[in-house]
Design a protein that fits this description.
One of its GO terms (molecular function) is hydrolase activity. 33% of the residues lie in helices and 24% in strands. By secondary structure, the chain is of the alpha/beta class. It starts with a strand and ends in an 8-residue tail after the last helix. 45% of the residues are buried.
């Protein structure tokens, strides 16, 4: 399979048609390169707040609600594109409000046959907890697809090994991210690469990029696309299958051979995934040594 992961820049949108045209251009461009799976980043949907004008886009709470109100339309567009181009798409995540509760950070996964489901972020960053008041969402899911088993760890979630371990049967783990500083990008990248090492799988990181001074939420973002595997047989010695250019919008691509994942899990020079359980009794029996 061929995977495309985005370094996605937000735009000021003057019309809904402009958003549809932008999304269609991104999708068609990746499919023209042979991509079977497209991954957009965390909070890429925040550009939709500009459709309600600068006062809404610049206000944290009102921009959240403006984006949430448009998600049914957004999902309809993505579903049409996934079907028309016969591709899987992980849409850019968005704050979604259901009922009277606080919004969750939700990424929707679209299949070529019109089916869709979603993954909510599990653990909130400080920014999400404090000024945004974004809530933790529903449980982790494992999507069994024609491309293999796919899990999703949204940004900060990728930094927690037990969440990654819960997805140990995933062939691919998608990591849509939104990070302000270079240090944030590297925290998520290190998490994504660590999960690839532990689970002996492929992780796919997408990033939001650019400066959007109109936004009260995602005004500065840093990152690039990256696709990672275990640094072992059948994969690059660095574990980096492909990476983009820092803060340069566009797609990053990699060819992934599912048989390579199966082989490294069975015949790798190390077997991290199989040996995971051996650490548990040792981790629970630390000896304190006066020194």
């Amino acid at each position: 399979m061929k995977v495309a992961t985005a370094a996605y820049n937000l735009d000021w949108l003057d019309s809904w048609a402009q958003y549809e045209d932008k999304l269609a251009a991104w999708v068609s461009g990746a499919v023209a390169e042979g991509a079977d799976l497209l991954v957009f980043p965390e909070y890429g949907a925040m550009e939709l707040s500009t459709l309600d004008g600068p006062e809404i886009a610049g206000d944290l709470e009102r921009s959240i609600r403006a984006v949430s109100d448009r998600m049914e339309e957004v999902q309809a567009v993505h579903s049409r594109l996934a079907t028309a181009y016969n591709t899987f798409i992980l849409g850019a995540s968005a704050p979604v409000i259901e009922g009277a509760g606080r919004p969750v950070n939700r990424a929707v996964f679209y299949a070529p046959d019109g089916r869709r489901d979603h993954q909510d972020k599990q653990i909130m960053t400080r920014f999400e907890r404090e000024p945004w008041d974004i809530a933790s969402g529903g449980p982790l899911k494992l999507f069994d697809t024609a491309l293999g088993k796919i899990g999703i760890l949204i940004c900060y979630d990728s930094e927690f090994p037990l969440l990654g371990r819960a997805l140990q049967d995933a062939d691919l783990i998608l990591v849509p991210s939104c990070t302000e500083a270079l240090s944030g990008y590297w925290r998520v990248r290190i998490g994504a690469m660590s999960r690839a090492l532990e689970n002996q799988c492929v992780t796919v990181m997408a990033s939001l990029v650019g400066h959007n001074l109109w936004s009260g939420a995602v005004n500065i973002t840093t990152g690039m696309g990256g696709i990672f595997g275990p640094p072992d047989i059948g994969f690059p010695e660095t574990g980096v299958l492909s990476q983009g250019t820092m803060n340069q919008p566009g797609w990053t691509y990699a060819e992934i051979e599912p048989a390579a994942i199966t082989n490294v899990r069975a015949n790798g020079r190390v077997l991290n995934r199989s040996h995971w359980a051996e650490q548990l009794p040792r981790a629970d029996s630390v000896t304190i040594c006066p020194f």
